[in-house]
Amino acid sequence: MNQIEAAINNIITDEMKYCAESEGVPPEKIRSDVMNGWTVITKNAVRDIKPLAIGKGLKTKVNANIGSSGDSCSIEEELEKLFTAVKSGADAVMDLSTGGNIVEFRRDILKNCAVPVGTVPLYEAFRPAMETGGANDAGFIDKFDPEYLFEVIERQCEEGVDFITVHCGLTLKALKTMNLQTRVMGIVSRGGSLIASWMIRKNRENPLYENYGRLLDIAKKNDVVLSLGDGLRPGCLCDATDRAQISELITLGELQKTALEKGVQVMIEGPGHVPLNQVEVNVKLEKSLCNGAPFYVLGPLVTDIAPGYDHITCAIGGAVAAGAGADFLCYVTPAEHLRLPSVSDVKDGVIASKIAAHAGDIAKGVNKALDADIEMSRNRRSMNWEKQYECSLDPEKAREMRASLPLKDDKVCSMCSSYCSIKLNASFK
Ligand code: SF4
Fold first, then answer.
1. Atom of ligand 1 nearest to the CA of 414
2. pLDDT tens for each residue of 39-82
3. Is 426 in the pocket of ligand 1 (CB under 6 A)?
4. Cα 373 to middle of ligand 1, angstroms
5. Does residue 402 line the site of ligand 1, with CB under 6 A?
6. Could you identify the atom of ligand 1 that is nearest to the CA of residue 423?
7. Ligand 1: nearest atom to the Cα of 417
């Protein structure tokens, strides 16, 4: 019996109990929210990890993308990124490997990862086509075999992948809608552009949409969460919230309903690049059109002109999205749009998104979210530096920074030194 079936039968599973305890909410809330499709529990039935609940009224979670590319494919480096991401607070990791032996990479990541792992099976499914057709010629797209895509999905689910991105809502109709308008960036989703290219070249419907029932049967077997991808997400601010994006979102809402009826857990992926004043409306639209399903946003990035600092543009959008009700933030690193992230980029990206998630949790009133800030303020007031480090999202950095300038008075820090207002405050109490 999977999580939805248990929830419908009024059974509170061990996974629901664990999630309730780690969130500080009643187990009954997790059960009923799973039943309604408002919360998902990410944990493949064959994996020995702690389950992770994502959804309504729960702490906003953070995902870190790692994985090789055609230009950089060292498993040692990707494993270092994995350990760094988890140590820095990532709640889940997606293996987006596209270069080297991606099957072995995934197995190594699954073996070494203590948190839920997600993938985009389309990447592996297109590999044979790319290898035989030549990666530098778009003609390789013609060699894609939809049957092989389902084989890949089945194998990944059996191996223990906890959630998969599947671009089921990118239909011929949605592509037609996109072509009726002018987009600056077209399709920027990697999986979205691969499947759309095949659909256009072959004039065929998306196999993930056409054979959605088959996909649901595969996901249901191991209780794999479907992350319904937004293949038509905007790739720049001026493409945000356009007809194509919303047309796909409407389809995703219909597919979410079908999945729930079949006992498959679903979350919905969202943009991308969005002006700050449209972030909240994007969250509200998803909640309304997709029946309250958990919303998993990439960023969103609130400006296009900060390459090298996109972890910051992402954190600004992520905080507003989380505050408005987004449930899961996909990090963006400073290397976004420039190169594959390094280990230190991964750390910077995770910390930036953790800040956004926490700020959002305070705004939306998540249970006890403000407690950590109150604790930090008390420790600041009492000038207890060790405790301040303990409360920090990045204790290592906080400790190193304070120690990097010599102090005349080790009670204070070098920012105000003898003019330390906290010390002065203490003197007149
Ligand atoms: S020196 Fe200034 S910044 Fe440092 S603890 Fe005192 S008031 Fe705060």
1. 1
2. 999 999 999 999 999 999 999 999 999 999 888 889 999 999 99
3. no
4. 17
5. no
6. 6
7. 1
Which domains are assigned to the chain? 60-364 (3.20.20.540), 381-427 (no CATH)
Distance from the CA of 139 to the center of ligand 1, in angstroms?
62
Q: Which of 420, 423, 425 to mutate to test the pocket of ligand 1 (most atoms within 8 A of CB)?
A: 420
Check if 413 has its Cβ closer than 6 Å to any atom of ligand 1. Answer: yes
Model confidence over 206-250: pLDDT tens digits?
999 999 999 999 999 999 999 999 999 999 999 999 999 999 999
421 in contact with ligand 1, CB cutoff 6 A: yes
Q: Are 281 and 295 in contact (CB under 8 A)?
A: no
Ligand 1 center to residue 374 CA distance, Å? 17
Nearest CA to ligand 1 atom 3: 415
What is the rounded average pLDDT of the residues 97-101? 92
* Closest ligand 1 atom to 383 CA: 5
pLDDT at 264: 98
Q: How far is the CA of 376 from the centre of ligand 1 (A)?
A: 14
Whole-prediction pTM: 0.95
Residue 420 Cβ inside 6 Å of ligand 1? The answer reads yes
